[in-house]
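Final report, Chapter 2: Outcomes

The project's central promise was a pipeline that accepts a single protein chain and returns its three-dimensional structure in a standardized token representation, suitable for archiving and comparison. That pipeline is now operational. To close this chapter, we reproduce one record exactly as it appears in the project archive, with the input sequence first and the structure output second.
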Amino acid sequence: MGQIANGVAAEISEAIVVWVSLADLQGKELEPYLFDNWLLAAIKRIGKAEATAEIKDDFLAQFNAERVWLVLDGADEMAVGDENPLAEIQRQIRTGGCIQKARIVLSCRLNVWDAIGTALDTFDTYRTLEFSYPEQVEMFIDKWFRSPPNPPFLRGGTREGGDGKQEGETLTPPLLRGAGGDLSQQLREALAASGKERIRDLVKNPLRCSLLCGTWQSLEGDLPDTKAKLYRRFVTTLYQWKKPRLNWIQQQELNAALGKLALSGMLNETSRFQLPESVGYRVMGASQFELACRLGWLNLVARDGETLEGIYAFYHPTFQEYFAALAVEDWHFFLNHIPENPQHPDARYRIFEKQWKEVILLWLGREEVGKEEKEAFIEALVEFDDGCGEFYKYRAYFLAAAGIAEFTACSRADEIVSQIIKWGFAYFNEEKQKGRTFLEPIAEGSREILKETDRERAISTLVELINTSENGYTWWHAAKSLGIIGQKNPVAIADLVEFIGTCQDELIRRQAAKSLGIISPNNPVAIVAVSGLKDCLISEINENDYNRYENYIRYEIRYKGIWDCAQNMTYPEFYQAWHTPPTNSPIPDRNHPQNTDIPTILKQLQPTDKTFPVPLNIRALEGETDTSAIAQELCTQLYQAIFPADTDIPAIRNAPEFKRLIPQLKNRLQKQHIALILHSSPCEDALSSLGRKLADAQIGIHIAWITDTPLELPLTGFPVDGDDLLDAVQNWIGGIGS
């Protein structure tokens, strides 16, 4: 983020870069914070006492001139209680004034983004990818040990620009003279050894790979196999070489004090990762707080704008979560279920609060927590009865599946993995002789969590399915799932190679070959199999049973709407809503359900022989009056929807320039017509005016709008809550060109 900010400032002469650590908002909205807090701090740095009205007007003018770049750091540290921080940012941008005209760059920790990142669907998304193993992991290890000096963990730093460290001080031990190459080779060999699959998965994460390299000198050949053990090893190593040297009792006392502070911060809904100096002294005591600062566990990152009190943070949020896990003595801290009254003051449902997931996983990986205690917690998760449609049952089960990757000795681990595979990839019911599938939200959630669970167990279960089942339905899904989780796993590769050689069903062999090509690129067996089956095409929908399929899709859309609510509401709130009938609104007509998830509905639209439908989410254009901006956004979305691999999107300014692109697009699609279906934005003058100019049946561009506002021809409108919206739009598409 710092490089982005510096790059923009250096390369765009008129750009005004505003850096905001979102943790600093502490419950305040972004726009008032910019004018009341950030601007005042900036003015004081140049020797002025206050931000006058004239200064604020000039600041506003920079926004209106579209010169401001907002660099918003740490959405995961934003204080919004149990709410979705990304959805809150989106709301503030949408309802704000001047910030709508700023360029915005936003950062967020990956684990938080994976849970709630869909809230920012109008942003371009980039992510730090995991390293591949062995190529990138081994390259990183070589560079770490062979680059003089070895890459350091810098000790903290303030957001005001100071680095907060003494000269040459780092959070990694110095290498022994001449030891770099030997250590690199030893670590690479240790990772490649049989039985080290779990740690190989862990170190694909760049931070954890850094931790392993930084502590390898003291590991003496012992590789940790859980995140908790990796962090514990780093803590132990730091105490071995940092001054002042602490004995074992002193280390445990400081860890306990850090745990109390970390847990205190996690429980603070307004500033989980920002810890006021006074809180540090109060919770830890003066001597322990000052010792933690000297060792680099806590670092000064900011000062309160009014009181100038120091604001401290753990040198990485992950370590606050680790120390918080050390402070949790009983799993009931995470879950204390009172089925008949979830809103009871003693009830605890932190298992459903996203900020606690890493703490829970680290707690399950602690060696000093008894096996019986962990078993009881997993049991409570697996058997959780929510009393409201099982939406939270699945969330609890998914957490248990992730948990057994840290607690591999769990007695129910095999059962949990088997159940996740059934939900995620379907299975064949031998008794009823028919396949069983699950609703897509359940299946999608299961497939995602399969990547986090005990991967070796999952692969072993899938291989066993392939080898023991005699049903093609099971074979097909097992082969498909191996392609998702079996990357470069020798057991998965060997089984697929053997299976391709013996399976007589061409369709199943094709899926197995596809999976083998994914987990073992350039495998000759996969290449030969795919080449031999390239003409075997299938239809995934039984056309003779289309009406049944269509009804299933409608049910699934409604189910997904409730599923999404369950992902973002607290369990007590959802429980109350589930069991409380509406009082101020009519009971919904089951035959005319509201269209609560229009994007999902429109994804079901099918092309015809003549027409290619393209749904466009135009939420980002709400309030936009600039015709050129509207035209460019529609063009960009159209290209991204139909040619996602294209990076060279034409620059256009108006409807005539847009229409000149249509013949080329139709030619690439091999269709006579393109139907744009606009949704998720009110019908506003500038947008509807451009739409009327763009829609032209003669050149083959047609535009529909999901809106309750009456439209003028040639635009076609469909009401937001109209009956059978999917059928209505599909029929309109079918009538084009007839």
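Archive annotation: The two ends are 53 Å apart (CA to CA).
This record, like all others produced under the grant, will remain available to the consortium after the project formally closes.
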